[in-house]
Design a protein that fits this description.
The complex is a heterodimer of chains A (213) and B (468). Chain A is an alpha/beta fold. Chain A is built from eight helices and eight strands. Classes of the chains: A alpha/beta (213), B alpha/beta (468). The interface between A and B is large, with 63 and 87 residues. The complex binds iron/sulfur cluster (SF4).
């Protein structure tokens, strides 16, 4: 996974509460058993004038020249709520986004971001709105900086500290693959199962004990 | 010993290793997949050259994309949907996991068949790349939704790296008034505390009203913990839970059953356990609920009007957008809104008790002219049971379509929809923009409210009807 260190980029405001994953990537845009080919469908319902169409809606922020090349989203409360579809994060990533700054995230979306190298940054709604207002004056000329190791966001002269759990922070910074990390604990996992098999034998189904269909 | 919450017991019994910052590597007892998101996980697992650690504890169903018209096969109405089905089948076969395939008599919606078959058990950790996995917490399990990459992790290692949530208890106290169901409890909770109210928490539902709920109603209650933004919702198992599970296909048998039962009886919060947050709701004052907007928190009593912005709990922008999208205005009584369609189904409300209650409303009545009404049982087992009881004939005589089981129009799988700007009353869990198809306007409610509305041709109060 690509590492996340310090990012300075154009930030696009979508500061609405409860932007759900159906909005981020409508299910009609998830066309194959694949993690790619999703960028075109990102925010399709808002981004295009007609459902299923591809004519840009000029009112939508990502269609405005000033926000071209955005890599950060400024979001509202409960960002990424709804369906667990990781396609929402894959679509954001493929489009070019590397971070979302919002007051709160749905827990599944948060986890999906971390697993895909997208930094989910929590700042208060006031801070997000202040950053959005500052950016709006000249989006291309006023990039927002996310310094993940320092846990700071900088926008012009203002600096905002944010909290993130150490596990997520380290995974993002080191670009770690969680599976590789966990597989190093094979011994601990086997030891757990050894104990647990005695304590809760009913949890361990045998392959032959399949109900006939 | 310090009193512990049920959540602390569920958590600590699964810790393989503590991680930094209160996170832990947790053992995962059951993994469920479906063809929409599970297929991706199985495919990328294979592409990475990894295998499933313990296939005997992994299950997969075809529920999301699969067609629900009678006589269905692998063809679906979703463009490219058949590929999901074929690839999932091949991947499941190769991985050696139990697949509830399109024509399997046990096929159904993941969160319906898992309890039905005794796959989820009290005290177990259960994950699925699906946000409504919290439904299964109703069995006293620690069950939560994850993404596909995390599912890959769970498949490959039998564990997950999990950040520990805070604990919340929601106590529903009192006796449910007539016409008020588990669906109304969860909508009332979300309306009162907001759709982000549970963010960061694992929520234990408790209280005298919850104890009185049957298992299927408890599943409905826990189903919408994700609409409350909670990591999960769950209920301490009790004698009803054990009775429900006894004899189910994957539930423990014989001596294992007795040992399990002894362990399960310990699964409750200690009397003096402290929760990070404790909420009490008096259910005696509640009414059947209905949503008016585009978030589950936009819910009011069925006999109320669309609230004004100040009392709506929504900020001005979200409020304006919701009104516009739903084509409603402040002060308009919900019951004055004419509907074009009615839907009974989904992992929230498609179990046999849901269908019985809806059928009781429909018996001897007809769906209003111009309303398209559909009932989709949550599993093939539910469907067979309903047919054995003659419920299918009640639905069809009233004018409902009677389908094969699956998620169907709970969400728009790309092929089938109610139509743009159609007003739909639905027993599902999400009234998001375009959730049930491009530009559909969804009002969520209990199955009996859906049935009463289908008959009336507008949103309706089931309490006004004589129900046998
Ligand atoms: S019925 Fe609806 S909410 Fe439930 S699993 Fe299927 S699509 Fe998701």
């Amino acid at each position: 996974m690509e590492r996340f260190g310090v990012l300075s980029a154009v930030a696009a405001p979508i500061v609405r509460a409860n932007v759900d994953t159906d909005i981020i990537i409508p299910s009609r845009e998830m066309k194959s058993v694949s993690k790619t080919g999703l960028a075109d469908g990102l925010f399709a319902g808002w981004r295009y004038t007609a459902i299923g169409g591809r004519e840009p809606n000029p009112d939508f922020v990502l269609n405005q020249a000033a926000y071209a090349g955005s890599r950060i989203i400024l979001g509202g409360e409960n960002f990424g709520c709804g369906s667990s579809r990781e396609h929402a994060v894959w679509a954001l990533h493929e489009y070019g986004f590397r971070a979302v700054i919002a007051p709160s995230f749905s827990p599944i979306f948060f986890g999906n971001c971390v697993r895909n190298g997208l930094a989910p940054v929590r700042l208060s709604l006031d801070a997000v709105q202040a950053i959005a207002a500052w950016v709006a004056v000249d989006p291309a000329g006023r990039p927002v900086t996310i310094d993940l190791p320092a846990q700071r966001v900088r926008a012009g002269g203002s600096e905002y500290a944010f909290d993130i759990d150490p596990e997520s922070r380290d995974m993002l910074i080191e670009g770690l693959d969680a599976i590789d990390l966990t597989l190093k604990q094979r011994a601990a996992i086997s030891a757990f199962h050894e104990r647990d098999r005695h304590a809760r034998p009913w949890i361990y189904l045998s392959k032959d004990a399949r109900v006939p269909s | 010993m310090k009193p512990r919450t049920l959540f602390e017991k569920l958590w600590s019994s699964h810790v393989v290793q503590e991680l930094e910052g209160g996170a832990a590597l947790l053992a995962i007892d059951r993994i469920f997949l479906h063809e929409r998101t599970g297929s991706v996980a199985l495919k990328s697992l294979k592409d990475a050259g990894r295998t499933v650690a313990d296939p005997a504890r992994v299950f997969c169903t075809m529920d999301h994309i699969v067609d629900t018209h009678p006589g269905r096969g692998d063809d679906t109405r979703m463009k490219g949907g058949t590929a999901f089905i074929l690839e999932t089948r091949a991947a499941a076969l190769e991985a050696g996991i139990r697949l509830f395939d399109v024509r399997d008599p046990l096929q159904g919606i993941v969160h319906v068949i898992s309890p039905e078959l005794g796959i989820v058990l009290p005290g177990a950790t259960v994950v699925c790349p699906d946000s409504h996995t919290c439904t299964q917490g109703a069995m006293g399990a620690f069950a939560w939704g994850i993404g596909s990459t995390e599912a890959e992790h769970a498949l490959a290692t039998g564990t997950l790296r999990v950040n520990r949530p805070k604990t919340m208890r929601v106590r529903f106290e009192g006796k449910l008034p007539r016409g008020v169901t588990a669906k109304d409890l969860t909508l009332a909770l979300i309306a009162r505390y907001g759709s982000a109210g549970g963010n960061g928490y694992a929520v234990e539902y408790a209280g005298s009203a919850v104890r009185e709920l049957d298992i299927e109603a408890r599943l409905t209650l826990c189903n919408m913990a994700t609409e409350f933004s909670a990591m999960t919702g769950f209920i301490a198992p009790d004698e009803r839970t054990f009775e429900y599970l006894h004899g189910r296909a994957y539930a423990p048998q014989g001596a294992d059953w007795d040992r399990a039962l002894a362990a399960w009886r310990e699964l409750s919060s200690d009397a003096d356990a402290v929760f990070d947050r404790d909420i009490e709701i008096d259910v005696g004052t509640l009414a059947p609920m209905i949503t008016w907007g585009t978030s589950p928190q936009h819910a009011v009593a069925i006999d109320a009007a669309v609230p004004d912005q100040a009392s709506s709990g929504a900020n001005p922008e979200a409020y304006a957008r919701a009104l516009q999208y739903m084509d409603v205005a402040a002060g308009v009584p919900l019951q004055s809104l004419a509907i074009g369609a009615a839907f009974i189904g989904s992992c929230t409300n498609s179990r046999i008790s849901d269908l019985r209650r809806a059928a009781a409303v429909l018996r001897g009545r007809k769906v209003a002219a111009g309303v398209r009404a559909i009932c989709v049982p949550g599993s093939m087992s539910v469907k067979r049971q309903a047919e054995a009881e003659g419920l299918d004939r009640v639905f069809t005589a009233a004018g409902f379509e009677w389908r094969e089981s699956g998620c169907s129009m709970c969400f728009f799988a790309g092929g089938e929809s109610f139509g743009a700007r159609e007003r739909v009353v639905s027993s599902t869990n999400r009234n998001f923009e375009s959730r049930q198809g491009p530009e559909t306007r969804t009002h969520i409610a209990s199955p009996e409210t859906v049935a009463a509305s289908a008959i009336a041709g507008h949103l309706a109060d089931v309490r006004a009807l004589e129900v046998a």
